[in-house]
Amino acid sequence: MPADLAGTANAVPAVVRVGVERAADRSSSGIGFEDVTVAYNGLVVLDSLTLAVNPGEIVALIGPSGSGKTTALRAVAGFVRPVRGRITIGPRDVTNVAPHARNIGMVVQNYALFPHMRAEENVAFGLRARGAAADVIRQRVPECLRLVGMASYAKRYPRELSGGQQQRVAIARALAIRPQVLLLDEPLSALDAQIRRSMLDELAKLHRELPSLTVLYVTHDQTEALTLADHIGIMRDGKLVAFGDAQSLYRYPPNRFSAEFLGRANLLPVQALVATGGGMARVRFRDGAFVARNHHALPDGGECLLCVRPHDLCLAPPDAASNALTATVKSVQWQGDMQSVELDVDGHLLRVSCAPMHAPPSPGAPLTVHFSATQATLVPETMVRG
Amino acid sequence: MADIALRLPVADERPAVNSWIAPPLLILAALFFFPLALIVRQALTGDGDVLSIAKFASVFASREFHHALGNTLTIALAATAGCLVLGFVLSVLIAFTPFPGSRVIARMIDTFIALPTFLVALAFTFIYGSAGMLNESLKALLHLDLPPVDFLYSQWGVMLSEVTVYTPFVMRPLLAAFSLIEPAQIEVAASLGARPLRIVSRIILPAALPALVAGGSLCLLLTVNEFGIVLFIGAKDVITLPLLIYDKAIQQFDYTTACVIAVVNVALSIALYSLYRFVVAYFGSRRAGLV
Amino acid sequence: MLVWSRTGRALTWAFALLLFAVLYGLPIGVIALASISGQWNGVLPSHMTLEHYVNALQGDSLEQLHVSLWTGFVASAVALVSGTWAALALRPLARLPKRLLDVVFFIPSAVPSVSVGLGLLVAFSRPPLLLNGTTLIVLIAHFVLISAFTYGNVSAGLARLPIEFEQVAESLGARPFYRLRRVTLPLVTPYLIAAFSLSFALSMGELGATVMVYPPGWVTMPVGIFALSDRGAIFDAAALTMVLAISTSIVLVGLSHIPTRASPR
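YS: structure for the whole thing
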């Protein structure tokens, strides 16, 4: 027996140990962006992005099309090369590493399953490309197909699968190589609403089963981001304009764009801020005054925006201390389980979502709405226009 | 996002050239560009070693060259015009008045492109030749002794054959361009009271223009280069440039004259090819029907 | 739908069918008819015979069928390899050099075939490369003339291939050559077959360059057909033309039945 194998208890072929097992053994790794800038032909599409995705975490990048979110993902995959900055996966700087050597799993919007291969061959592709041993492939492929609930479709060609099934196989294919990080690029946007909902639950379940998997998730859909992500980054015009955990980003948006993009928000310009202690502040709007959370600790005397979500506005006063606002009804829409009322306050649009009413107000009539001080938050008016 | 995007001095990252391109390029250079260069050299030096344009001068002064050049251009222009008219009519019929079997016919025309061109010339001798079907029918009907139709062994015969052979090359881009026209557009126009001819002139023709120009310039190139049809028609006074080259080199073993004419012919073809590429680039390959 | 009235539509259809019949049906029909005519002095042949096919499938004519098939297969196969190679090598290049080289690979299709033949005669009729009078010069002529078409077909196929397939393959760890072999080439197989088919058909019908360079021992069918028709054996010429068209079609139909699992969605 050769000396170097003498100490090995069970002889696993070397190539498998290196190419496949090592990635699994290694504790999970995060993704780091440090001042990453990407430009195509001189046009900056990603502007000095600095962001850390912690090991085992799901981070969603959301933003409108052209905001640079997909470019950020493709930079991690290695398909675009930054003109400046560093990208790390775990402790390794991969900025100049070829895509095939990065050990990432990637799932794209249109699945891109290889049409000339059966589902199982698609899943085996990455293992074969890395020269994994036959018995590893035999064991890993059914395991991954089972994980996404596609075990009985192993022999099917992609064209014989529905969109949702194709997407499951695509996820299995990405997971089969036991990647350090999983990149999901708009993975659900080609599916119709109902299947998207159930796939979303599946993805959440998948992450519970593979808690060490680090995921970077790019989407334009806020529901997907809010459902799945531990942290959310909001992108706009190539820049990261907000980053935080889903809860606080939703409740205390740091700027106008985030407030409007992540869940619809009513924003009213208010003045003469006075901090009242306990993280609260009083502001002036027209003749009246409101009390709201001053989460961002805005300075006294300044102007800012009052942010109230449509479902936090109610028609009946829950208590005497609540903020009240009288406006003119513009339109009333019944949406089944919800009634949506649009109000006009000094030329500002105010949306109210409430339970269906027996006698909805008619357009043109005055209406007083209330909101709780703790449900309203003050947002700095930034340079970025909405 | 363009309004906020700042411009960085970043060049196109893709390589300008790589070594993988060398093998096919070398093969092409050895088998195509090198022989082409030798044609030019032979045209300029003859069988000696002295560069001179004397041979060009004498060829340019000769009547047979004028004749051939004139024939080539006349036939090419007329045949191209014929292809454009016929191709447009046939494409409109196939695309906008779908009749039973029109799809099959469209596919048949596609395969016609792959058939040798001389097939049509050979067929025409059976149909329009002096002892062909048409003349025999007319002689029998009108009790004539001499064949009444006699155009095949002239420029007309060549033109008609070329129109038949090259019309599919106009139809292909046209049909592709027509498939981009919304049927609703035509239905709306018709519902507003536009008559078919008006729809053709106001909606279909403008949409087809890029494809017509692209198909037309391709036709011009192919008809200038056509050899088989002219050879098979074999009319004594219909000599085109390619036929004259063949005649000089193979029948008379006068390679230098053949090379001089070939230089002119190749230059003409490359100019027409440039025109074609320019047209396609100008309109964009999608609008030119070359999706 | 451009014509709405019932009679108008019927008239248009009749016109269209007549036009197609006269333009494209008649020539092929006449060749087919001539190939089985014993004698044709009136409007229609006076009697039918299969004698011309017997002639076409023996002796020189049969030899020409062999020559044409061989030339077509060899020239198309070489052109397929070189065209695919060129299209793949050009793909990652920057815009400007790519367009320039693209024109270079397309130019042979723009040059008249007789001039290509003349160039080969001039270039290879003297030492060190004395190819004049060999079979090889015919193969070279065919290769040069069809190479642009194979290149064009393959690069069109590559241009239509969505980039995601190869990127996903790369992210899964596939090195360039593995990716080419397992993903790129299988996905463009339909275009490779189309490229080969077109090249083969063009080679089978090639006349201009062949007539310039062919040696006595390597006569292709189009040259043979011209020789027959030139000496007045037009019915034999028609029969050989039919053999040419039918044998080309058989090969093309055969090629179109090669199973490719890469069906584009």
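YS: worth flagging: The two ends of chain C are 29 Å apart (CA to CA).
IM: good catch. Also Chain C has one domain: 52-94+101-256.
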